[in-house]
Design goal:
single chain; alpha/beta; eight-stranded mixed sheet; 12 helices; elongated
Length: about 260
């Protein structure tokens, strides 16, 4: 089973780095408009480098497309006629629906939305496809992507929301960690230590939600003692519109994904 990836930017390289750890990297080929970037990635991860898109996809069963939405049409004008009926194309272009992808190339598509945590195999990855992708191919695609994190199949109508929550979400979490660390520094903690405390707190809290299955509000209440320190912090967050800001951030990212799909 040969795998190709066109594009070794942040997301393409994150996915492929994890895939190279799980599968034989000699069965994986990468390419990029910036050849030096793809060549360096190939050397670091033991996979193959192709100097052109057509060379990269030759004999590939699964082709990952990791380019910006604006470049898709030109890309498929170049490679579309060389994609075989047995090949599955996996697109991670934000906002671009399967119907639009099919209008650019006579190919069979799976649409995914991963996030940057794929580089440490902790991504949240959503997958959508039409009936022209067999159950076996869906299973194989999920197996490949599971190298990079947790994979769930969702209706395509939810993909823009997925983009807002888990696709863009890491940036919001990083900002929260940075803000927590800044506060710790303000209160006297060395910065290097502050980042560790803030990041581990976020990691542990997230694991608690996933492992226990409890509602986040219930877990929040379990930490919030009467007249204690935590309720003072919670009150400060509420006073400054914390929930509203997060909701607005995810909503705006979702709306931008919808907009990208219309262009």
């Amino acid at each position: 089973m040969k795998i190709a990836c066109i594009g070794t930017g942040a997301m393409g390289s994150a996915i492929m780095r994890s895939v190279c750890k799980k599968y034989d990297p000699k069965e994986i080929t990468v390419t990029d408009a910036f050849a030096d970037k793809a060549k360096e990635f190939a050397q670091e991860n033991g996979c193959n480098f192709a100097s052109s898109n057509l060379d990269a996809i030759k004999d590939a069963k699964y082709i990952f497309i990791a380019v910006k939405p604006a470049f898709l049409k030109n890309l498929f004008d170049e490679i579309g006629s060389s994609i075989s009926n047995d090949t599955v194309v996996i697109s991670m272009a934000a906002g671009v629906k399967i119907e639009k992808l099919e209008s650019m190339a006579k190919a069979r598509f799976i649409r995914i939305m991963p996030n940057v945590a794929a580089q440490i195999s902790e991504a949240m990855i959503a997958l959508s496809c039409n009936d022209n992708i067999s159950k076996e191919e869906q299973k194989e695609a999920v197996e490949i992507l599971s190298a990079a994190g947790k994979v769930e199949k969702v209706p395509e109508k939810l993909m823009d929301c997925v983009t807002g929550v888990s696709g863009s979400g890491p940036a919001f979490v990083f900002m929260f960690i940075e803000a927590m660390a800044d506060a710790a520094v303000r209160c006297g903690m060395p910065r290097s230590q502050a980042y560790i405390y803030a990041a581990q707190t976020v990691k542990g809290s997230a694991e608690l939600v996933l492992e226990t299955g409890k509602h986040p509000g219930e877990l929040k209440d379990s930490v919030t003692s009467p007249a204690g320190t935590t309720i003072e912090g919670v009150a400060a967050l509420e006073e400054n519109g914390f929930r509203s800001a997060v909701i607005k951030a995810v909503t705006n990212a979702t709306l931008k994904s919808i907009e990208l799909g219309k262009n």
